[in-house]
Amino acid sequence: MCGITGYLGHREAYPIVMNGLQRLEYRGYDSAGIVLSDGENVKLFKTKGKVSSLRKIAEKNDVHGNLGLGHTRWATHGIPNDENSHPHFSNSGNIAIVHNGIIENYDTIKKELIARGYTFKSDTDTEVLVNLIEEVKIKNNCKLGKAVQMALSTAVGAYAIAVFDVNEPTEIIVARLGSPIAIGIGENNEEFFVASDASPFIEYTKDAIYLDDEELAIIKLGKEIRIRKIKDDSFVEPHIQELKLNLEQIEKGGFKHFMLKEIHEQPHAIQDTYRGRLLASKGIIKMGSVDNNIGKFLNANRIIIVACGTSWHAGLVAEYLFEDLARIPVEVEYASEFRYRNPIINKNDVVIAISQSGETADTLAAIKLAKSQGAFVFGVCNVVGSSIARETDTGAYTHAGPEIGVASTKAFTTQITVLALMALKLGNLKGEISNSRFNTFLQEMTLIPSKVEELLKINSEIEKIAAIYKDATNCLYLGRGYNFPVALEGALKLKEISYIHAEGYPAAEMKHGPIALIDEHMPVVVIATKKGHYDKVVSNIQEIKSRNGKLIAIVTKGDTIVKEIADHVIEIPETVEPFTPLLSTIPLQLLSYHIAVMRGCNVDQPRNLAKSVTVE
Ligand code: AGP
What we know:
Helix content is 37%, strand content 23%. It contains 21 helices and 27 strands. Helix 17 packs across helix 21. The structure holds 2-deoxy-2-amino glucitol-6-phosphate.
């Protein structure tokens, strides 16, 4: 997954495009590039490495120009190096392109082009695409927009592209299939911005168009934007939306890392997520997309949850929620396995797809599969207008705001919040939860944000524990019931940002093997909250202690038993069992954060990872 951005207008394009790339760097950061045109001259700068390295190169040169395209890369085809970084040019040097996605049939196209005398400097699918556009343009003697449309009709795969012809420096063509692209519109069409999301142009305009799949837009200075369907050239009425993002949301808000900022944003994020849905005083949960499809949920044979990574862990918590509170059978599937396992999907199945970015390719494909088999697909997404939000029949947004840190935190707790509201609503409607118990839950949910706030206050205590275990080479996380998925999530957080090998397990599973790993060098994090098989967890803790394991226990405030056994205890406020994951996960997020910082890791952009994985 890459970040693309561009500008066309009366201002200097360089600073706008460069700052835009900086903001999009969470999307991929192994190489970057920029192309500028001042109407006569075209300047290209690109390099392996971060946007900061690109800046160093470009600023030694003339960067004047009112049209610019930029790209920050996460390699798919071709290793991260200067040649493979974008922008790419056609053989004639007339057409420039930046691309996010993958052209799956690029090899076939490349062979045909080579047979026609084309040569290639890079190993990328993108350079193949821009030369295909050139070939089509020359052969059909048509305008760039038409050539892009025709070329894309033969390309297979996912793409968001921005293209311009050096001889037409007042026009940019953008198109999308699978990968997101937003267009920012300046006053009187005197300037335009294009980007993978709105963050690069948020301070310049609040008017934006999110292109839909298989759409192409012709952006010409001083002209209305024209949008066409790629496959049949049909006209599409542009849908301009007002952006609600603010710049501060994007910047770090004074925290050292986006991850720490996002951990601290969880009280608001959870509140924003149930705002307007949880009406505790009225004793109701209002979720239009559920209400409008209530029959499907109430008559569902089962719920199949598809997701990846942290979202999959939220799905696992949802399994406990729906089965416990609504008595609806649930299966939780890794989307990547589900899409190829030839799964049995029935018409009365409800599929819930969970994704922060809304762009994860495997989850998107699992959705398409489920829809093709007639299942009703409900999405839980954080990015408005994302591909998954568009592809699902309906859904509910988590209002976590932009999540920039690659390690997902507030998306996890807001996903659980949405799923808990759904399970409570269905449970109450089905009479599985009495009205009094239902109201207790609603009241308790309104207390969760302040309980998270309270928890964030012990950040420095957790930092002290992190200092003791920062040099660990392995770590185990244990939980039971609702807290088993939290143990998995805690292990994932530590793995992905500190590069320490960690595994999560149901606490009782220890005896069936992993306990062999326990010795005085193995830190073991155990979630031992009062609600949820407490006595059983205490005996698991004793089994570990008797083998000298180093115990970090997450306990309910006022716990007196585990305190006597564990090496460290982190107290969390008491809550009802189904909501414990919303609290027990917070100390695990902070523990992994501090350990990673102390190990000098790049917490917001861990190695080998990207914020959402738009390739298989
Ligand atoms: C979690 O911290 C990771 N960034 C990753 O596992 C992520 O959860 C996964 O790629 C799914 O992303 P999504 O929620 O955007 O679909």
